[in-house]
Amino acid sequence: MRELVFFLEEPSAKAMLETLLPRMLDQSIAVRCVPFEGKQDLEKQLTRKIRAYQNQRARFIVLRDQDSHPDCSAVKQRLLDLCEASGKADHCLVRIACRELETFYLADLAAVEQALTLKGLSGLQPSRKFKSPDQLGSPSRELKTLTKGAYEKVAGSRAIGRYLGVDNARSPSFRNLIGAIRRMEDKLLLEAE
């Protein structure tokens, strides 16, 4: 069975992917989202989870927030090392949400506006702050403020995922995640049944 498995820092990423992925992926690919209880839990269990995964045709994408860590590359390398220790590194890709998952949403205010039934947010997209949201210090706080508290992490992520534009390039970390998903999908589709 062709399977794309996501190892995620938290349930909000799972909620977003569950509504985003059906619009992107070929129906022949099964998807499993495995949320952890924070980045420490993810790092503690990642190697074991990948190693123990029984489906030999599964491919893995690890998604974690950068949060306040000063070096995105170091965060990614740590996760790549954990994938390497599983013995299945050639089946893994690691992606880091620059600062937080909410950066993806701030890069597509039209999706936020539509998902949360708010008015006027998409008109703010051209502002300097939302042209390059990967640079924001606290995207989750920014999104809460912008939506006047209407954004709630899991329910909001699920709703926004339905509308996120997969070709949105305002967040390089979102663009890299979409690229990773497409690359893994292509690999899975090229394999013989």
Find the count of extended strands (DSSP E, 2+ residues): 4
Largest beta-sheet details = 4 strands, parallel
Q: What letter string, H or E per element, gives the SSE order?
A: EHEHEHEHHHHHH
Strand order of the largest sheet: 2-1-3-4
Q: DSSP helix count? A: 9
Termini separation comes to: 8 Å
Low-confidence stretches: none
Helix content, binned percent: 40-55%
- The share of residues in extended strands comes to 5-15%
Report the C-alpha radius of gyration, rounded.
16 Å
Name the quaternary structure: single chain
Structural class: alpha/beta
Mean of all residue-level pLDDT scores: 95
Structure description:
The chain is an alpha/beta fold and 193 residues long. Helix content is 47%, strand content 13%. The protein has a 4-stranded parallel beta sheet, with helices on both faces. Helix 5 packs across helix 8 (153-161). The longest helix is centred in the last third of the chain and has 19 residues, at 172-190. The chain is globular, with a radius of gyration of 16 Å. The mean pLDDT is 95.
Please describe the structure with a list of short key phrases separated by commas or semicolons.
193 residues; alpha/beta; four-stranded parallel β-sheet; 9 helices; 13% strand; globular
